[in-house]
Description:
Shape: globular
Organism: Chelatococcus reniformis
Protein name: Transcriptional regulator
InterPro entries: AraC_XylS_family_regulators (IPR050204), Homeodomain-like_sf (IPR009057), HTH_AraC (IPR018060), Tscrpt_reg_AraC-type_HTH (IPR020449)
CATH topology of the largest domain: Jelly Rolls
Distance between the termini: 36 Å
Structural class: alpha+beta
Number of domains: 2
Order of helices and strands: EHEEEEHEEEEEEHHHHHHHHHH
Keywords: DNA-binding, Transcription, Transcription regulation
CATH class of the largest domain: Mainly Beta
CATH architecture of the largest domain: Sandwich
GO molecular function: DNA-binding transcription factor activity; sequence-specific DNA binding
CATH superfamily of the largest domain: Jelly Rolls
Amino acid sequence: MEPSxxxxxxxxxxxxxxxxxxxxxxxxxxxxxxxGALPFDAxxxxxxxxxxxxxxxxxxxxxxxxxxxxxxxDGMDHFVFNLYRTGGWRAQTAQGEFKGRAGQVSVLDLARxxxxxxxxxxxxxxxxxxxxxxxxxxxxxxLHGRAPTGPHAALLADYIDLLARRLPTLPSGxxxxxxxxxxxxxxxxxxxSLVGLEAARPGLELVLLRRAKRFINAxxxxxxxxxxxxxxxxxxSRRTLYRLxxxxxxxxxxxxxSRLARIRLILVDPNDTRRISExxxxxxxxxxxxxxxxxxxQFGLSPSEARxxxxxxxxxxxxxxxxxxxxxxxxENWIRALPV
Length: 340
């Protein structure tokens, strides 16, 4: 019997609408700005590497969009590192317009808005939960839409390329160690590009904000979760905490939005068969009408519409969604299974 390899899946389509549906969990995609009837192909190999996901893709020309409203509401709080073997990008963010070319690595913060126009490309993408890198790279959001430069950046590009090429034949059992090594490489290679950003945005406040968010997300099901508890856990005054969360609409708004995002993750889990009211109650929503209105306002659909399909594949509750040949719904479940 041949040894098992790193868990993987494959997705391929020649239809733009099918690709749009499959990637909608992360981005809204649009045809190229110039329009036309250009042929489109998407071919994606995906690998589960402990708490991160690596994709090796060949994609047709398109525009990626994350609007401000979507960035605030859909619960995608990860970083994406794209190595462009061919192609490139032109990104528009709140901080300006940035361009990149083949051989470079772009940094995307899914918690922030973005428009990126991309030609036909061969690229490797690392989907990395924020908590894996936030301590070593507290200012990483400052690179959103940009490409790090210099010899360290070139070394990172070489590493990501080699990782993607080796993953199909790597034996299983070492995913956690390889994930940690990849995070260490990201930290070592990106830190030089962040030095100049620290003077523009105080690193301490970013660390405090991420620490507060981590505490909140670890206690979303606690009835005792409130501003005072967050202040005590992080070691800041109420005034400082309120200032840290100004761009989030306030502490209580962030808590409610995070609870709703966590509930949505649970609803798309086919292994969780609890009633919607029971799930909502576990996160402090005692009134179903208030919960339904808040959920619809944040996501644009009702809780029942967001509910995933019933049990399948004989999976055990709480396990990560299995990797296999996937359609649009499987891909959405797979991305939503990434920890936040």
